[in-house]
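Entry 14. Structure prediction run on the chain below.
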Amino acid sequence: MGKTLFNLLRNRHVFVLGLTLILLFGARELRLSDPPFIASLRWITFDTYQRFKPREALGQPIRIIDIDEKSIAQLGQWPWPRTQIAKLLERIQNLGAACAAFDMVFSEPDRTGPAGFLRELEERGWPGRDEIKPLLSGIPDNDAVFVQSMAGLPTILGFFNEPRSAMGLPDAKAAYVVLGEDPTPLLDPIRGSVMSLPPYQAVAEGSGTISLGQADSDGVVRQVPMFIAGTNGEIYPALALETLRVALGDKTFVLKTSEASGEFSAGTLAMTEFKVGEFQVPVTANGHLLIYYSRNDPSLYLSARDLLNLSDEELAPLIEGHIILFGSSAAGLRDIRLTALGESVPGVFMHHQIIDQILSNTFLNRPDWATGAEIAALFIVTLIIGAILPSTGAIPSAAVGAVLSAAVSGGSWFAFSSYGLLLDPVFPMLVSGLIFLLTTILMFAFAEREKRFVRRAFQRYLAPDLLRKLEEQPHTLRLGGEIRDMTMMFMDVRGFTPISEKLPPEEVVAFLNRLLSPLSECIQKREGAIDKYIGDSIMAFWNAPLDVADHPVKAAHAALDMIKIVKELNDRDAFGFKSGPHKLGDIRIGIGLNSGPGCVGNMGSSSRFNYSVIGDAVNVASRVETACKQVGWPILLTQTTATACKAMALLEAGSITLKGKAQPATLYALVGDETLARTKEWQALERLHRELIEGRTRVASRAEIERLVNACLAVAPVDLSAFYDSFMPSPIIEELAGE
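Output returned:
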């Protein structure tokens, strides 16, 4: 279980990356399905862009004749007699208007004129109607008057999309050229309509739908269908578009789809643009125009009352050469719409915006590659953050994420402000932020789990500083066994058996605790790890589980610290052995050090294990500690450890046969640190000691060995008498030397 856990922890980069990819592909599917709340966030972002940078009004020749509250107050409630509307139409004709479009439908005969009055008498069965008929027959009918006024000025009439209507569909006034596949399956359908009377339609130059399509759930009109398709393949333009066609004197619309020559196609049929006159207009896949709003300017409107009351000189600059749109801002007529700029405007203003936008040649465009680009941005931002999160942590990753999000947002704003492209930054930033938050929480949970595991496993072995490092770098921990170059230490208390025989058990335990605690601190302060306590012995190692630079040197310094601690404890009789009744004397220890490869990891069963090291290098360290008694010095190092500690005060102890080893090993006594090794006294001792080693090698006489030993003792900066006693030849060696 521990091995599996650490394999997972060790590969947390892979884990985070895998989780991130799963979440990313889930987010991709969510984006492609485009639920309403995602679309709403996207449109709110684009609305915000428009509010920061609304379309600049360039003063195109378009005017709205407004049937406003003050006009109704003067001319009476709506609907007005058609003769009154005819007066308005004739007035703008006389003032030189280019054309006139009505954001309204005249679907019923005027009941206020002579014909309507007679129909009313017929319906009521009034007995004097026959006498009145001759009197009214000479008066022109209101509808006829209006039709006559329409004949004098290019007029465009509107119709409603009403599936339940029995009026059928109007006649199309414009011709169409389609480049690519038939677009009618893409367009909003019309199965019935509410339209103006046939005489009106006959004289009108154009006919277009005044329906603005379905507003979004928040009531904002953001896009309007430019064309709708009839049941028999007819195509009808929007009122604004038909008005522009008539004003330009054009006869034909050109519709272009993704299958047209030169158009990119991803295998899905879509409208891309249409052409009216010389203007090429980009549209959505189903032929909608994304409205780029300018501010609602009061100067665009001319009250119908003022049109009748002001002089020609006052009106001419406002009407001459202008496209005239008739509509109403009166609250009672309930034709108020909400724009992306947050303004409530009359419906006729929407038609004005469409015409004005086309004439200004300023468009919003959401290309067919926009969704793919947004998903790609999401993947790039999230994968970059996910790749660096496990190694850098939450704060640097958040900083990188903030920079990337700023880049995505900046790119989106640049695309909008410079090219009118609508690229959503919110979905990539929102989803990448959520994924970052989730993975950060998981990484935090993993980190805490790692720390708890590491602390439980190593708090008994490592110094607090080393343990903190291991908690910060748990990936450096390898469980289950690995070969590392290590330095092993064995420490043993000399004469422990007599001590344990003379002291009661509880005092033996107290003695060991008082001794082993400071010795263990010496090891941990030098970045060593306590492997185990074996009665009166300590087994420790360096360079696991974390890398420890110069581990042989640090182990050697720990050994010197331990000898110093034991001396201090003896000097102040910390154990009470000198003053107590047992008169046990000073405590002495022996330490053996060896460097070499060791297999370190969890040793034991799946339910209970210890972090330990095994190998031949461990056994050698144990035998070296035992050899301290033979050599007469408390710290012995093997050749490998001594080589790494050559700057310290070392003396060769000679070749010694270790228990269980066939070949003798050259051991070295560690006498002091680098400071001692740099003294003149020590350097003089080293020269004499080399002569002594050479003398032993050539089996010199006892007198020669004794002379060299005494010479060494004479210059030795510390008491080495016990150590040099081991250099005196045995009787057998003396006998061989005599021969």
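The longest strand covers residues 589-604.
Filed with the rest of this week's runs.
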